[in-house]
Structure prediction request, 150 residues.
Amino acid sequence: MATHPKRTPRELMEAYLTEVVINGRLELIDELAQPDMVDEANQAFNGPPGRAGLVAHAKGFRRNISDLKVSIDQLVAGEDDVMARWSFTGRLVGPWLGSTPTGEEVSCTAFSFFRIRDGLIDHYRVWLHAMLDEPVVFDSANPVLARRKA
Prediction:
């Protein structure tokens, strides 16, 4: 069994957002997440269970949003959980949150929540407000896409 660096909840979130989301280092998910972790957003879109689901989630996001620019706006960490408020802009080049690809710029503010077990991500929840062809709100705990007319 490979040993991985022990990270604080804050370091787990920073590694996920900077290395996985921004830099595309999907292989790091093996050292950041429990094999049986739950990714609520991935489940909402019928993705695979466990760690493979987080890989599919990140891979799909990076495939559908190009020219990605991410800003980590705030991190709040406890002993076994962490929340990040982050935002991004990019071009919608694939289907995402029920929108068809337009090639146009999109922007989003997201809140990501990790629950930590034994130093690894055990549960991932996300809430976001995206500016697509019309504003969209998504909460992985209640995965109904809410579209709001501009």
About this structure: The domain at 9-147 is CATH 3.10.450.50 (Nuclear Transport Factor 2; Chain: A,). The CA atoms of residues 58 and 121 lie 14 Å apart.
